[in-house]
Design a protein that fits this description.
The chain is of the alpha/beta class. The protein folds into two domains: 199 residues, Medium-chain alcohol dehydrogenases, catalytic domain (Quinone Oxidoreductase, Chain A, domain 1, Alpha-Beta Complex), CATH 3.90.180; 139 residues, NAD(P)-binding Rossmann-like Domain (Rossmann fold). Helices cover 27% and strands 26% of the residues. Strands 3, 5, 6, 9, 10, 17, 18 and 19 form an eight-stranded mixed β-sheet that branches. The chain has a six-stranded parallel β-sheet with strand order 13-12-11-14-15-16, sandwiched between helices. Helix 5 links the parallel strand 11 and strand 12. The chain is globular and about 60 Å long. Its cofactor is Zn(2+).
Length: 366
């Protein structure tokens, strides 16, 4: 099978190779991959900056597909089912985090696409316990966005609580920021989403998804807009989704005293300059949010079924697996929103995401 493999550590060393199709254990599914999303962690792995990646490794953990084979102990899935999977492949099952089903925090956790082979291939293997059926109305392309949606659910609804009527700031209008804004809005809160002038297309997408207040901080005063929306009190919570300490430090003074900051974006380096003085003086609670756990997937699927989350508008471009270099280049330059790789062009063509004559199509056809 064709697979996109990071072959050794350091910058680059990513190659489309031919590998043997994976075999499955009794409790596993073999999934014919339809789409894989390019995540920020995939880009960092390509660049050699992701700290926990094993090599050689097939990249990809945001994906959807069709069950191609089931293990002898599998009971909930059949060949032909449309599925997606959580990113956790294996944990110790005995630590305190595992006992609470917080598998994302297990020290021995092995993730799909980072420690075990991922989805940027013709086939991927996952445990039955980690897999989820796609709702009938969900396209396979949308299914590839369930993982980032689950991450946002975990951050917004499990790491903290949201009350209707709150005014909440989200920094960074990438796919995570756009999904985060929608999850927060679904709880009855008012969202302010901030970005830069170069993010015009992303902020336009936010408006299409129902986010009314957006700010280009290099052209508008974020402080003035926050003060106007909160009567000068500041936002009750800040969700930092950009992974940029500049954005975080600009937003910290706009959080109300004893407010809460949820760090979702992954910083480019291990140590970043953060205004700890403001956190101390304003008694802010600063909380990290890592990945997701099983409960977040159930909530993510429920929100989609309730029609309060839009996924298709975030898909900007679909490339074939063979066009991975162009796809990663597009993602790294921030030209689109969510970039997908199609492992199975026939499935993609059936959904209207790929023309037979070209492997590039925008969301206008989604």
């Amino acid at each position: 099978m064709k697979a996109l493999q990071k072959q050794r550590s350091g910058n680059g060393h990513l190659k489309l190779v031919e590998l043997t199709e994976p075999e499955i254990q009794p409790d596993e599914l073999k999934i014919a991959v339809a789409y894989s999303g390019i995540c920020g962690s995939d880009v960092k792995t390509l660049q050699g900056h992701y700290p926990n990646s094993t090599v050689p490794i097939i990249l990809g953990h945001e994906f959807s597909g069709v069950v191609a084979a089931v293990g002898s102990a599998v009971t909930r899935f059949s060949i032909g089912d449309r599925v997606t999977s959580e990113t956790t492949y294996a944990t110790c099952r005995r630590c305190e985090a595992c006992m609470k089903q917080a598998y994302n925090l297990c020290d021995e956790r092995r993730g799909i696409g980072t420690q075990v082979n991922g989805s940027m291939a013709m086939f991927v293997v996952s445990r039955e316990a980690s897999c989820h059926h796609l709702p009938p109305q969900m396209t396979l392309a949308e299914g590839a966005l369930l993982e980032p949606l689950a991450c946002c659910v975990h951050a917004a609804l499990e790491c903290t609580t949201i009350t209707a009527g709150e005014v909440i700031l989200v920094t960074g209008p990438g796919p995570i920021g756009l999904l985060m804004a929608q999850v927060i809005r679904s709880q009855g809160a008012t969202v302010i989403l901030s970005g830069l002038a170069r993010d015009t297309h992303r902020l336009r997408c936010a408006h299409a998804c129902g986010i009314r207040t957006t700010v280009m901080t290099d052209k508008q005063s974020l402080a003035a807009i926050v003060n106007q929306c909160t009567n000068g009190q500041g936002v009750t919570q800040l969700f930092e989704c950009s992974g940029a300490s500049v954005a975080l430090n600009e937003a910290l003074p706009l959080v109300a005293k004893q407010g809460r900051v949820i760090q979702v974006g992954l910083f480019p380096t291990v140590c970043e300059p953060i205004n700890a003085y403001l956190i101390l003086q304003r008694e802010l609670q600063y909380c990290g949010s890592r990945s997701q756990k099983p409960s977040a997937w159930q909530t993510a699927l429920r929100l989609y079924r309730e029609h309060v989350i839009q996924l298709a508008p975030l898909i900007s471009t679909v490339y074939s697996l063979a066009e991975w270099e162009t796809a990663f280049d597009t993602a790294m330059k921030g030209k689109g929103l969510k970039i997908l790789l199609a492992s199975n062009e026939t499935l993609a063509q059936q959904e209207g995401w790929l023309h037979e004559s070209t492997a590039l199509l925008s969301t206008t056809n989604g």
